[in-house]
Design a protein that fits this description.
Layout lengths: L14 H19 L5 H16 L10 E2 L3 E2 L1 H11 L8 H7 L1 E3 L9 E4 L8 E7 L2 E4 L8 E4 L3 H6 E6 L2
Antiparallel strand pairs: 1-2, 3-8, 4-5, 4-8, 5-6, 6-7
Helix pairs in contact: 1-2, 2-3
Length: 165
């Protein structure tokens, strides 16, 4: 007699496990991308990526700038950078104007990626985490997430990159 095959129902990963896996991913991407910078800058960039990772799944809120009320894209950037001790302006356009321009090929974790999503000029911003990925607050009804810059939409709307380091 053979035993029937047992299949387990898929379950959602516990939040702690997701955070541990994200921390490992960020650490790997960060180490590979930041080999040529000093320890203070490396630490700030690391803190920015870690704090941004902690905001995953926080709700989008137009004009929002805290985990409790939610974030819009530039509010997320301003909040995360402030927690790391780096002052940045409030809006994506102002962040773009204040950041030092860098090439896409020079991106390191903690840099900003800017997009033009239908309006003229910069209208969206995310925090680059390495591996062509960035964390951002996408739009109303969605939550903070990681997206890939090679996705068709982000390739089409990519505007520029900037750094506060």
């Amino acid at each position: 007699m053979t035993m029937p095959e047992t299949r387990l129902k898929p379950t959602r990963r516990p939040a702690l496990l997701q955070c541990v896996k994200l921390a490992a991913l960020l650490s790997t991407l960060f180490t590979a991308s930041c080999a040529t910078i000093g320890p203070v800058e490396r630490q700030k960039r690391n803190v920015i990526c870690e704090i941004a990772g902690q905001m995953l799944n926080v709700k989008y809120s137009h004009g929002g700038n805290s985990p409790s009320e939610g974030f819009d894209c530039s509010g997320l950037v301003q909040y995360v950078f402030a927690k790391a001790g780096v002052s940045v302006p409030r809006t994506s356009a102002a962040q773009h104007d204040a950041a030092r321009r860098i090439s896409k090929s020079s991106l390191m974790p903690g840099d900003l990626v800017f997009f033009s999503t239908g309006k003229s000029g910069v209208s969206h911003v995310g925090i680059y985490i390495g591996g062509n990925q960035f964390i951002h607050a996408p739009s109303s009804g969605k939550k903070i997430r990681i997206d890939h810059m090679r996705d068709a939409y982000w390739r089409r709307t990519y505007h520029s990159a900037g750094s506060f380091f």
